[in-house]
Amino acid sequence: MDLESVKRYLEKGSGLLEDDDKNRSAIDGIPNRFFERFIMQGLHVDLVEPGRVICSMKVPPRLLNAGNFLHGGATATLVDLVGSAVIFTVGAPQTGVSVEINVSYLDAAYVNVGITALSVLLFYLY
């Protein structure tokens, strides 16, 4: 694929054909914060206490990659969202913006496998 096709692919959803705008109306119609709900649907909060949140879920088919295991982007999004949520447990009015996220992928998680996310607040400046 040439560079312009890659650009169209990212901007329009496929970009394989010059006049390929079939996804544009669907993409424009996606509600705000759609991806948070898309990723977190089925997430269960197992524990919430000041400075600590534990969540779990079974990997749903919608979050699988081409290799049929949990997509790395979905994992990183879960880390970001659950990691940010712990800030609210100490009374913060908002979470801010993630500046850096480091995810180490130790093994694949396949469909219907249970995963757990633990978020611990190390410090908070009031």
Largest sheet: 3 strands, antiparallel
Please, how many helices? Answer: 4
How many distinct beta strands?
A: 3
Helical percentage = 25-40%
Shape: globular
Rg, nearest Å: 18 Å
Structural topology:
Elements: H1 3-12, H2 24-28, H3 34-40, E1 44-49, E2 52-58, H4 72-88, E3 114-120
Antiparallel strand pairs: 1-2, 2-3
Protein name: Thioesterase domain-containing protein
Family: Belongs to the thioesterase PaaI family.
InterPro entries: ACOT13, HotDog_dom_sf, Thioestr_dom
Structure description:
The protein has 126 residues and is of the alpha+beta class. The chain folds into 2 domains: 1-30, no CATH class; 42-120, Hotdog Thioesterase (Thiol Ester Dehydrase, Chain A, Roll), CATH 3.10.129. It is built from 4 helices and 3 strands; from the N terminus they run H-H-H-E-E-H-E. It has helices at residues 3-12, 24-28, 34-40, 72-88, and strands at residues 44-49, 52-58, 114-120. The protein has a 3-stranded antiparallel sheet, with helices on one face. It is globular, with a radius of gyration of 18 Å. The protein starts with a helix and ends in a 6-residue tail after the last strand. The model is unreliable at 13-19 (pLDDT under 50). GO terms for molecular function: fatty acyl-CoA hydrolase activity. Residues 68-111 form the Thioesterase domain. This is Thioesterase domain-containing protein. Belongs to the thioesterase PaaI family.
Provide a quick synopsis of the model:
This protein has 126 residues and is of the alpha+beta class. The chain has 4 helices and 3 strands.
